[in-house]
Write a structure and sequence with these properties.
The protein is α/β, with parallel strands linked by helices and 275 residues long. The protein contains twelve helices and seven strands.
């Protein structure tokens, strides 16, 4: 067997190092932003459950991408994604439309207040509307490299808009683009009625929704798993932190369990890899 000569391959290795993206630098930049002062203390305290660096790295986030976050709520991930993408990428927030739902309207108001609180930090945030069936066109110019959605699918099941939402994601992505999903995870075999009631959704249903829209499952991760979560609470997933829907009842018990057990899934839109 011929021996390996580093000197022989050194020019090719040097060229390869020059053309590959600076992954370590990108990760360091993300870590710095996650630790940055723009994040509220309440949001930072949830990192132990939400694992933002690991989750975003799993989805393949890069600083020069066009990224769409679906229903950003009060902006937990906005505090990370907007500054990370500000200089070289683009961050789109596909927000829910105002309605007669007071909780969702409150999230819209909180999100708008966050953007207004620091114009320099959030100056490049573009806000779109996703509320099927009326508003489904969330396509950025040229298409998105990455779409992310965090703990929203149970809402779409309740509204009857889950399939329309996944179709909108497929349309908005470039060929080869990635859909990253995090959702409260139900036990296999849980009925649709129970999913809507408890807020926990089966992996099987999420994968089916994505595949029916045209996506291919690329990978699964246990980044946001929580084996302590028994998923049998009187007020569903909202019993656990940060909601504590049961109030003072068994508060210490739920605090010890922590936030919900969550699936973390990566889907790809078939075609050439997005750049």
């Amino acid at each position: 067997m011929p021996s390996f000569s580093f000197r022989r391959f050194a020019p090719a290795l040097l060229l390869l190092a020059c053309v590959l993206p600076p992954l370590a630098q990108a990760d360091a930049a993300l870590d710095q932003i996650i630790a940055g002062p723009q994040r509220s203390e309440a949001h930072r305290a949830r990192d132990v459950y939400r694992h933002p660096a690991e989750t975003l790295n799993f989805f393949g986030l890069k600083p020069d991408q066009t990224v769409v976050e679906i229903w950003p709520g009060g902006g937990w991930y906005t505090e990370i994604l907007a500054p990370y993408l500000r200089e070289h990428g683009r961050y789109y927030a596909a927000q829910v439309a105002p309605s007669d739902n007071a909780e969702r309207n409150g999230e819209i108001d909180a999100f708008e207040a966050k953007l207004a609180s620091d114009h320099e930090l959030y100056r490049n945030v573009a806000v779109e509307t996703l509320s099927p069936p009326q508003f489904t066109d969330i396509r950025p110019a040229g298409g998105a490299d990455l779409i992310v959605t965090f703990r929203n699918i149970h809402n779409w099941l309740k509204d009857g808009t889950a399939q329309d939402s996944f179709k909108a994601f497929y349309t908005a992505l470039k060929s080869g683009g990635i859909l990253g999903v995090e959702e409260h995870r139900a036990a296999p075999g849980t009925s649709l009625e129970q999913m809507i009631k408890t807020g926990y959704v089966t992996e099987e249903l999420v994968i089916k929704l994505a595949k029916d829209a045209g996506f291919v499952l690329a990978a699964k991760a246990e980044i946001n798993a929580n084996p302590k979560d028994t998923k049998d609470y009187p007020k569903g997933v909202w019993t656990l932190p940060p909601g504590y829907a049961a109030g003072a009842l068994d508060h210490e018990r739920y605090q010890a369990i922590g936030e919900s057990d969550r699936m973390t899934l990566k889907f790809i839109k078939p075609g050439a890899i997005a750049k």
